[in-house]
Each structure stands twice: as structure tokens, then as C-alpha cells.
């Protein structure tokens, strides 16, 4: 098989969509979709736009909530995808973005208080993380890298394997962002030997 040599405009091969909650120094809330994310243990590494409100907020108040919407919420994600909490809108975004002060209302989502951080959680998201920002690395082609330690996890009981502390991936479906399209996840094809839930029958956990 031969391959084409190409240069795509984005490299979002398939990453989870997050709704990031943050607050500024005056307590004003912001909610922003993002999809540049990976995890190491209890540490998250998140890519944030340099000209977005979220990076300003986490510098002022180094706390964040990371809310994972299911695929049915893709339209709520889109309602705030081209909005910014910055006012005025930064020049590079002015042709497409608009300022929105209350993104929860814009997205039709419900804010709910977090336990250990100032930013709110998104009630409609079945998986929610509270995190404290530990380090910010600046200046990567218009993006900054935020490292945050998860201090609390909230999970809808419907996605937790009964009697455990583990998310059952057969019961939980994130929204996957792949080359600017939204997807759910499909049929299970296998699992690692270290899986925490492989021995729990899906029918039992439902």
C-alpha cells in the first residue's frame, strides 16, 4: 500500500471534547470547548489558545473544571464553539467569533458548584473533573500548555461499574472530535489486560 504525503490543516485525529470551566480574578465565569488533552495519572495536560479567555482566567485563578459531554450535547458545544469571553474580540478571531458573557445560557447548559475549586461544573456532563493548575508553559504557535492536577472526580452512577471506583467504558460515551467532526464511540474491539472493568459484565452494570 502506498500513502499520500499530505499536510492537513489540523491534526485532531480523534480526541475527546471538553467543556472547560474557569473564572477570572473578579469571579466572572467562562465556559469553553477544547479538545487538546491527555492525562498522566492524576495530571492533565491541556492545550489552550493564547488569545482565549480561559488562559487569562487560569493565570488569575489557577483552577479549572474539565467536563466531558456525551455526543448528544454536540449542538451545545457548537453554540459556543465560535464565541469568546474576551471583550473586545481579539483581532485574529473577529471575522468569525463573537463575545458572549454567559456561555452557559448560550449553550443551554446548567452550571452547578464544584466542591474544591471556584469554577462551576456542567450538570449535563456525566463525567466532571475538578483540577488545580500546577504549571503553564507559554508560546507554542499560538497555544499554551496547562498542566493541572485532578483533585476530585464526579461521575454519574450510570457510568460507574457497581461496587467499584471505575468508569465502565461500555456505559460511558465521550464526544470524540476528529478532523472537525463529532463522533461517539462504537463497538468494543478488545481491552488491555490491566482493564479495571473487563471482568464486570456490561449487562450487570446497566
Task: Report on the architecture of this protein.
The chain has 206 residues and is mainly β. 12% of the residues lie in helices and 35% in strands. It is built from 4 helices and 14 strands. Strands 3-2-6-11-12-5-4 form a 7-stranded antiparallel beta sheet. Strands 1-13-14 form a 3-stranded antiparallel beta sheet, with no helix packed on it. It has a two-stranded parallel sheet with strand order 7-8. β4 and β5 (43-49) form a beta hairpin.
Structural features:
single chain; 206 residues; mainly beta; Pnp Oxidase, Chain A; seven-stranded antiparallel sheet; 4 helices; globular
Short characterization:
12% of the residues lie in helices and 35% in strands.
